Amino acid sequence: MEETKHYDVFVIGTGIAGQTAAEVCVKNNLKVGIADNRAFGGTCAIRGCDPKKILLQFTELIHKSQLLIGDGVSKLPKIKWKEVQKFKSSFTDAIPLSTEKKLSNLGIEYYHQSPIFQNDNQVLVEGKLISANTFVIATGMIPRPLKITGNEFLGISDDILNLKKLPKTVTFIGSGYVGMEFACMMATMGSKVTMIEHGSKPLKQFDAFLVDKLVTHLETMGIRFIFNAEVTSVEKLKKNLKVNYLLDGKEKSIKSSKVFNTAGRVPSIELLELEKAHVKFDKSGVLVDDFLQSVSNPHIYACGDVSSKSLPLTPLSGLQGYVVGNNILKANSKKFDVPCIPSTVFTNPKLSSVGYSEEEAQKRFKNIKIYQGDASAWYNAKKENNPVYAYKILVNERTNVIVGAHLLSSEANETINVFSMAIQQKMTVLQFKKQMFTYPSYSSDLKSMLKDTD
Ligand SMILES: Cc1cc2nc3c(=O)[nH]c(=O)nc-3n(C[C@H](O)[C@H](O)[C@H](O)COP(=O)(O)OP(=O)(O)OC[C@H]3O[C@@H](n4cnc5c(N)ncnc54)[C@H](O)[C@@H]3O)c2cc1C
Ligand SMILES: NC(=O)c1ccc[n+]([C@@H]2O[C@H](COP(=O)([O-])OP(=O)(O)OC[C@H]3O[C@@H](n4cnc5c(N)ncnc54)[C@H](O)[C@@H]3O)[C@@H](O)[C@H]2O)c1
Question: What's the cofactor (predicted)?
């Protein structure tokens, strides 16, 4: 007979969503347990946003220097990749232990295994049968395995982040956020990069006018894009990997020393045996209602990337963890309203977006006004010799309220936050133009983007 244990709340997953939900509950005197089957700390801190940005700051240094060669820069900085990796590891290596310490100090008991549901309110973990009044599923997402021969030769984003040296040639299958960011990083560092995408363009969620400009720029950096292609298999050769694909019905192939699967991520639910707990799920994740409670089992909530109501972004996962914690404490008192959430693809230049896309705004409002332009001749871009700078701002014509902003620039990840606040505050163009910004700065350009041209 297994040892049994009971918790008020048992959380599965120690990423931002799971940690936030657990913390809210334990700070309100509930008995909380948590489990993770990998090192504690989650994707963002160990295998995602944070280590990625550490690596990218070095490639950004190279990119900025490349643009200024002959105008004051005579030689590109020499990046020692081994040292870069060591620096990055000094952040990531510390996360698991500090997370365990934090959980322990809060009085949360933890387990290092994937729990397996036994029934509606019991799991088996580390040989213990654990019951809880409420379970929180916060297991995030994992790369979607490609069902092709040779899938085992493909690397994933974890492998890219830990590369000991940069490959001379590299192919990415899939050109979403992950593929585009790492392709840009490696191309800047001198790798010959090919992107194979089954759609007709990359970054489908982003504004086409800006995506086209980004792609054109990345092509001038040497990245080769192959669109509308279906990868059929990957073969291991003596030195290289060979990717076979179909393009316009013709069989083609490309060789490179590394190939990465960047074709999207799927909810990490396979090991949990959710069927035994009557938890409904589909390809979007655990099906939840507006309170982030399972639609089929009231003992269970889901938050973060794994919930059907998430957009896989760190700030949203944290917010969902907070909502779940509060709904456990105060019987479904907080609905999860999708906030106005900005997002950035960290390429060079960066592509950022907040609020409605042009297509969404067209559907939602009778008339919209579009402020769109190429700002590469503006001072900010020119002082960097940066050939790419563009924008599209959407305004509800009836009310003059700003409803969407899309930016492509070296500082778009910061300036998009200004538009995010404006949209949340339902600012009109006039109110926005009354704001004062520092000069010279990319923020000071934002008002100029809202100038009437006629
Ligand atoms: C390469 C990369 C770069 C990214 N960059 C950004 C960025 O710049 N900005 C941004 O906003 N977002 C970024 N994201 C997305 C962001 O990392 C996620 O949205 C966020 O980490 C999700 O948090 P979470 O808590 O929901 O899940 P996670 O952080 O993934 O945590 C889930 C935890 O559950 C554990 N787990 C999984 N299955 C089980 C199981 N069966 N049993 C027990 N434990 C389990 C995992 O080990 C993990 O620790 C990036 C993602 C990747 C992959
Ligand atoms: N900067 C950020 O905020 C950031 C960075 C990385 C990831 N993320 C989050 O993680 C999520 C996952 O990112 P991702 O890049 O893994 O997925 P994604 O869904 O953004 O992109 C996957 C791409 O692969 C393509 N694809 C799918 N199957 C394919 C196939 N068989 N062959 C060729 N191409 C194929 C898709 O058409 C798409 O363009 C994102 O939605 C994002 O929310 C965010």
Answer: FAD
Burial 102-112 (b: 16+ CB within 10 A, else e): ebeeeebebbe
| CA 203 to ligand 2: nearest atom | 39
Ligand 2, atom nearest to 313 Cα: 43
Q: What is the interface pTM, i.e. ipTM, of the complex?
A: 0.98
Ligand 1 neighbour 36 (Cβ under 6 A)? yes
For residue 2, the model assigns a pLDDT of 66
Q: Is the CB of 19 under 6 A from ligand 1?
A: no
Say which CATH topology domain 151-263 has: FAD/NAD(P)-binding domain (3.50.50)
pLDDT score for 338 = 87
CATH topology of domain 5-50+86-143+266-329: FAD/NAD(P)-binding domain (3.50.50)
In terms of CATH, what superfamily is 349-448? FAD/NAD-linked reductase, C-terminal dimerisation domain (3.30.390.30)
Using a 6 Å cutoff on CB, does residue 199 contact ligand 2?
yes
Question: What six digits make up the tokens of 319?
Answer: 């917010």
User: Could you give the CA distance from residue 286 to residue 250 in angstroms, rounded to a whole number?
Assistant: 39
Give the pLDDT band (50/70/90) at residue 454. Answer: low
